[in-house]
Amino acid sequence: MTSIVLEGPIAELREQEIQLLFDIAEEIAKQGAEAEEDRQRLKLSASDLRDMFFMVVIVGEFNAGKSTFVNALLGDEILPTGITPTTEVIEIIRYGDKSKKPVMKEQDAIREWTHPNTGAPGVVIVDTPGTGSVFAKHERIAKQFLSRSDLVLFIMSAKKAFAQTEKLYLELARDYGKKIILIVNQIDLLDKQERKEVEAFVRQQISEMMNIEPPIFTVSAKQALQKRSGGLFSRNSGDDSGMDAIRSYLNQIFERIPPAKQKLIAQLDFADSMISKYRTKIDDRIQLIGADQAYVQELQEELQNQAARLAERLDITMQELQRVFDELRARGRKFIAANLTITRSLRAPDRNEIQEKFEKEVIGNAITQISDISEEYVNAVVDSSRRYWRSIIERLNKIEAVLEQEIGTPDAGSYAEQRAALQTAIAIADAELKTYREDSLAASLRDIFATNLSRFTTSITGLVVGIFALVLGISAAGPVTATAIGVIGTLVVGPALVAGGAAGTLLYWRKLRQDAYDELDARLQKLSESYRQALQDMTDRERTRLLQYGQEILSPVFSRIEVLSKRYQEQRAALIQLSSKSQKIRTELERIQVQVETTSEN
Ligand SMILES: Nc1nc2c(ncn2[C@@H]2O[C@H](COP(=O)(O)OP(=O)(O)OP(=O)(O)O)[C@@H](O)[C@H]2O)c(=O)[nH]1
Ligand SMILES: [Mg+2]
């Protein structure tokens, strides 16, 4: 096999470029199966760089005249041509002795020839089965050669320009960053006017559809072949087939920059196209995951806000309750001051009358107020919790929708896990939401409050009535409550009653009232405490529920998203680094003068 031996700086650059191609292949391996094809291409490119031949690949629709064109370039009719789909294998023509027999390779998918007219040592011409032909079984290999190519000659028939499959191959070549030359063949079948029209049409189509502007040539491969002017780079054969213009263009390409350097540049272009392809992919993912993270942040903030709102709301409620209790206290004191007096005691009031009076004047509508306020709080908590859980579910669903776009990517595995975790999170949030529907929270609190209140009413009226009964000796109205006896007994009754005398009596009554005030305060304090406690407990339970959900259910979901995001950032950084390596090689490559020596080896 003939190959180019490189020496000096360009040999060093070749090594760097081979390394770069391998590094890219390794980096994109992280993208899993979807990158497998590209990885193979990169490795092939690297090994092509070792062989160091410049590969000119001919592609186009079947019957466009590709094989005829190659024969015309060689000035030798070695490849089969015909009006039916003809080329069945990839035909590789290397530089070398023509007398060698062609060799079949790669399970008969490739046939290798040698011919002295490939143009220069190191230049290889590759003819492919036509796109859209019955031999598309070799399509995969044809595409492989397209990706390895250093120069693509795209042949179209003047009679049938721009078939669908042609467009696909052109796009592929463009996306690989290949240098493309477009050749409109069979122009002998058109008159002068038609040629112009076809050329204009092709130029317009390729610029509009592909957004590229490759050089376009028109040719009659058939006529060129008849002239038998051989050699890729032979000039001025003097035929009017259009082949001369193509040859001189190719000559220019190689004169300006020798094949070895072109090869390095072409493969560097390919490397760059791979880097940018995967950068786009990763950037897209970073954007997606960024959306996830934004939702996640919103969720976490929402969680904090919700807890803070609960605390705030509880404060306001407690203030409202306190006002009611304060009023209750003021009325209670007034009642005691007005009724627990010597004058009043002389009138010997009826026990039921006192109880009624106390309930009417002191308790009044406090019970309704208290239960209204607390009920309002419970309802507010239930409402906002409901809203909260609904918004959690909605946001989680959004994240799930984002994740769904990621299914089928190499990270599908971790996304599947992520989704499972999310679904669990959603199910739990759903269940939480349901608990409010059953309204058990409000009901249980209402029970607690009802019990508290009735206990209070009973005990405070019992206390007051008991004091009156004991002091005024109206126990005939009914039994004095044990509580009242207990309180009064230990506090004042005994010693005061014994004291006697006018001053003693006054003192006694003052002390009695003071004790009654204290007792009222203490009981109110206890009641208000029990309210605060019940509301606080409920609020705490709610907060715990939120925080626990945050820690146990949401955190794992979030941390996985963060891990993914970090991974993507790393991948992006790695690609950026590879890109700057490539840039460095390119700069070096453009600077050096290439010393090319050729040798033959086998
Ligand atoms: N008139 C005319 N016919 C041509 C020209 N070039 C090729 N042909 C004819 O077109 C037919 C197809 O040519 P091929 O070279 O086999 O075409 P191909 O693109 O290699 O076709 P596949 O191998 O099937 O993909 C043959 O009959 C050729 O003789 C040309 O410039 N003018
Ligand atoms: Mg052919």
What does this structure look like?
With 602 residues, the chain is of the alpha/beta class. The protein folds into two domains: 203 residues, P-loop containing nucleotide triphosphate hydrolases (Rossmann fold); 246 residues, no CATH class. The chain contains 16 helices and ten strands. Strands 4-5-3-6-2-7-8-9 form an eight-stranded mixed sheet, sandwiched between helices. Strands 1-10 form a two-stranded antiparallel sheet. Strand 7, helix 5 and strand 8 form a beta-alpha-beta unit. Helix 2 runs antiparallel to helix 9 and helix 3 packs parallel to helix 7. The longest helix is centred in the last third of the chain and has 90 residues. It is rod-shaped. The N and C termini lie close together (5 Å). The C terminus is likely disordered. The protein binds guanosine-5'-triphosphate and magnesium ion. Magnesium ion binds next to helix 3.
Q: Which structural category fits the helices and strands?
A: alpha/beta
Order of helices and strands: EHHEHEEEEHEHEHEHHHHHHHHHHE
Bound molecules: guanosine-5'-triphosphate, magnesium ion
Largest sheet: 8 strands, mixed
Relative helix content: 55-70%
Please tell me what the overall shape is: rod-shaped
Radius of gyration: 47 Å
| First and last CA, distance | 5 Å
How many helix segments? 16
Strand order of the largest sheet: 4-5-3-6-2-7-8-9
Spans of at least 5 consecutive residues with low confidence: 474-500, 595-602
